[in-house]
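#dry-run=false #mode=assembly
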Amino acid sequence: MTVATLDISPAGAWRYWLRNSVVFKRTWLLGLMAWFIEPVIYLVAMGLGLGRYLQSVNGLKYIVYIAPGLLAVSAMYGATFETTWNSWFKMDESRVYDACIATPLSAEDVALGEALWGTTRAAAYGAAFAIVAVPFGVYRSWWGILTIPALFLIGANFSLLGLTFTYLITRVDYLSYYWTLFMTPMFMFAGVFFPLNQLPGWLQTVAWFMPLHHGTEMMRALMTDGRPGRAAWSALWLVGSSLLFLLVPPTILRRRLVK
Amino acid sequence: MSEQPAVVARGLTKRYGSLEAVAGIDFEAESRACYGFLGPNGAGKTTTMRMIACAMPPTGGELDVLGLPVLGNERRIKARLGIVPQEDNLDEQITVVENLTVYARYFGIRAAKVMPRIDELLDFMQLTEKRERKIMELSGGMKRRLMIARGLLNDPEMLILDEPTTGLDPQARHLVWEKLRTLRRQGVTLILTTHYMEEAAQLCDRLVIMHEGRILVEGRPRDLVAAHASKQVVEVFDPPQEVEPDLEKLSHLADRFERLADRWLFHTDEGDALLAKVRALPIDPGSVWLRGGTLEDVFLSLTGRRLIE
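#status=ok
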């Protein structure tokens, strides 16, 4: 009956976003710690620690080489944490979703509001990292300013992916698989820490399908190389992938909650 | 002019695969009255409520809520309903007043505009002092009252309550009942499910008893008791073994007789006469008593005493 068609109201999604922002005002300090500090630790430990033993990577100081990828990672973590653990908690434990769909909000509104919120948080974490990274001298171009809006593209992509997975699973335990089998390999093999042209060809093909790879390329093109044209291609990939997934979480959430 | 009924169901059905949770039920819930759904677990009460609340589309039949068919009118209907689910689902991390402003916004009501209404509802539910508290600091009874206050924010024409007092202590339960009666007097339609016969008898103008997805009986509580229970019941608690044969003989004088693990029940319209005969036996007088027939008798005689899980 109505299961096949979606019932979307942008105002509804926005109202759900506002709900999250009210809760965030009470809890932001707790959340900020873990997910923004982690990439900073990588930057300092690997950039300064490991970097001392490396001559250069692609002609760059190691810390300069890894900073763009870590900026993308901070957005990835922000979006993913929000749309896996936090969204699961709201859906399954505290029953916030049930409370929402008892009002004029639809399940689709909740899913889209959640994606928008994940995107916002990703941008907030990313921006914090971007500012902290300035004194390390990792920005080599004024185009680096554009990394801030670029964070939203990475955030949207990972929010939609995270929600797709979270809304499909039946037990919270499966979230660990998402992190171990999807997030961690991406973190290691998307080109954050070393150039992919060293790797076997098939692995480079796999990397092309990783959103973090395009996020990293986009950030590197902006803040290191100052080549906005090349960043635009990566941005296009991220926009396309986000559009592809845009209606997936709303569809799955409706099937899950309204049955 | 007679008012349009708040809910009309015709052949309402909900199927999950081969399981028929609600098997084609018909009922009409009048406006400005309290309509109750009783039944053991798995009877289909909550499913019926969820369909009325537009949280679940029916598989078959017709369902009109506040004059609109539910399918395709979910947002419009939900805007006019207040819903209080069985489990509290307040936002634990924010305060009482934040919970209410956030929820009001789901209805498109701005925080500044809803403040007088919030003050009024907190006062009505005796929660004014808890205004700035976090939800985790509230007792079970306070949370329940806040859930009802939240359900009233949009000034609903109809309030739907799924087991509104389950898990509350007697004081908290009576307070909730009092508030619900006040609301009904103010003209709010109430729809509720309950396991508690006393709750149903206290609050409902009319009710249905459901069992295995069907409606067994429908009517006013008093009429149901008159039609389906004997006027009186003689109860004998744990009688000594030697009087059992004599008691068994007396059972033929009752309209209906039940022997439970620890009690013997004689359902009869001639309670006094039967009581005198039981009292004549050598039984501790404190373990024999006479009471009127209740909704619980109706319920148990219709749905059986077998444990339903």
